[in-house]
Design goal:
The chain is an alpha+beta fold and 429 residues long. The chain contains 16 helices and 9 strands. The chain has helices spanning 14-22, 37-42, 57-69, 75-83, 87-93, 106-115, 118-133, 198-202, 221-230, 244-251, 284-289, 341-350, 353-364, 378-395, 401-409, 412-418; strands at residues 150-157, 170-176, 182-189, 211-214, 234-239, 262-268, 271-281, 295-310, 317-332. A hairpin with a 2-residue loop joins strand 6 and strand 7.
Length: 429
């Protein structure tokens, strides 16, 4: 018979205590209005001189987002699409009398892309998508284990671009788990500089009570302290060989005596996958080793797939089963009162949304890695427009990005709906 350990008395962490002072109501998510896309772009500094400006920056950027939503992947495609943009879209973006039919010249669009500050555009676009998501700070203390809003942090190479140092630039991004929208993105240069940009990426976001997931490269003490003490959030980190002392300590625990507390079996894509998780409270020596550590866990993944093999010098194929097993250790600041084993498994699983639903879509659907836009701020601006297009499509309730883009090409009304724009009959020609 397995010995039953006494349940620990719930104690508020420093992050919870600080957030409890700021937020009074318990267990409620505050909702934030998403605002308007034109207002979002109006907040972006216009790099042009005020004299001679004929097309407002929000109109140019709004048309550029619409072009990306319609499937344009290059700057020349965007300028060509803008030259023939629907009149009702122009009327909805530009409310000035007589503005209908006045489309920006392609040279104007290219000049704006060359001068525009890429980081400012990324910051305002991320804030706009986060506000539309309607998820604000989480109040403390939570009444019991619950799946909290979560964001994944991961980097991506913009392989079609070349930075001033001649190297491929990298972008570090934060994206929500649920609808997979990018809420922050920052240029980090070579990938070896990804860790130092973690705090600047998140410092301006209101993530109190959120759960931040990241790969093993970000499993460092400074990130744990920053997440819990400054952001008032929680972390779920995987532990691998880059932190050998922590890895050996967690791996040396008596996992054989820890029961499997959650198990999921899924079948699809020609394989059967079983995932199990074992969770235990972090012992005292691990709490001293890693800041705000509350629980440690072991996830094991067993995959069985059928493959066709052919023997040497034979034309006959034979179907064989191939089994693989992977084990991953992790650490989290979430206590057993705040997250059950199934919640920790969901956070680890949900982390891959940023790879599968954002980075993969940008590479495959928008062909980002093969882009010919290589220098200056233009590659980053294109990445932000793609993030914004993906986020708008998902927040409109559509999950298949490529199929939705094909529909948008032939349905201007769907484009207006996703952009949350309404025709202006007084200005339309």
């Amino acid at each position: 018979m397995r010995a039953q350990s006494a349940m620990p008395v719930p104690v508020m962490s420093p992050a919870e205590a600080a957030a409890a002072v700021l937020i009074s109501r318990a267990g409620v998510l505050h909702r934030v209005s998403g605002g308007d896309l034109a207002e979002c772009f109006a907040a972006v500094p216009d790099p042009r001189r005020r004299r001679g400006i004929r097309r407002p920056l929000p109109v140019i950027l709004g048309l550029a987002v619409a072009a990306v939503l319609a499937g344009c992947v290059t700057l020349s495609d965007i300028t060509a699409w803008i030259s023939g943009a629907p009149a009702e879209l122009l009327a909805a973006l530009d409310a000035r009398p007589g503005a209908a039919g006045r489309r920006p010249h392609p040279d104007t669009v290219e000049r704006v892309f060359a001068l525009l500050g890429a980081q400012g555009l990324a910051d305002h676009a991320g804030a706009y998508l986060m506000a539309r998501a309607g998820t604000g700070p989480v109040t403390f203390p939570v009444a019991g284990p619950v799946l909290l809003p979560a964001a994944a942090i991961d980097g991506k190479a913009v392989r079609g671009a070349i930075g001033p140092d001649g190297l491929i630039p990298y972008l570090l991004a934060a994206a929500t788990h649920g609808d997979a929208v990018v809420i922050a993105e920052r240029l980090i240069g070579p990938k070896t500089n990804e860790v130092p940009e973690f705090q600047p990426l998140l410092r301006g976001l209101d993530l109190a009570g959120w759960v931040l997931t990241m790969d093993a490269g970000h499993t460092v003490r400074a990130h744990a302290t920053f997440t819990c003490e400054e952001l008032l959030a929680h972390y779920v980190m995987t532990v691998k060989g880059n932190t050998p002392k922590l890895l050996d300590t967690i791996d040396g625990l008596d996992w054989a005596s820890v029961p499997v507390s959650h198990q999921v079996t899924e079948t699809g894509h020609g394989r059967t996958e079983k995932r199990t998780i074992q969770v235990t409270d972090a012992p005292g020596h691990i709490r001293e080793m890693f800041p705000h550590a509350a629980q440690v866990f072991l996830i094991e993944r067993y995959v069985t797939r059928k493959v066709r093999k052919r023997k040497k010098n034979s034309r006959r194929y034979k179907t064989a089963e191939v089994r693989t097993a992977v084990a991953v250790l992790g650490i989290t600041s979430l206590s057993a009162r705040e997250a059950a084993p199934e919640h920790l498994a969901a956070y680890v699983r949900g982390h891959w949304a940023i790879e599968n639903k954002i980075h993969w879509v940008r590479d495959v659907t928008f062909r980002e890695d093969s882009s010919q836009i290589r220098t200056g701020s233009r590659p980053r601006i294109m990445a932000t427009l793609r993030n914004l297009a993906i986020g708008l499509i998902r927040q409109a309730g559509y999950t298949k990005i490529a199929a939705t883009i094909r529909r948008i090409r032939h349905d201007p009304r769907l484009l207006m709906t996703i952009l949350d724009l309404h025709p202006n009959p007084e200005n339309a020609s």
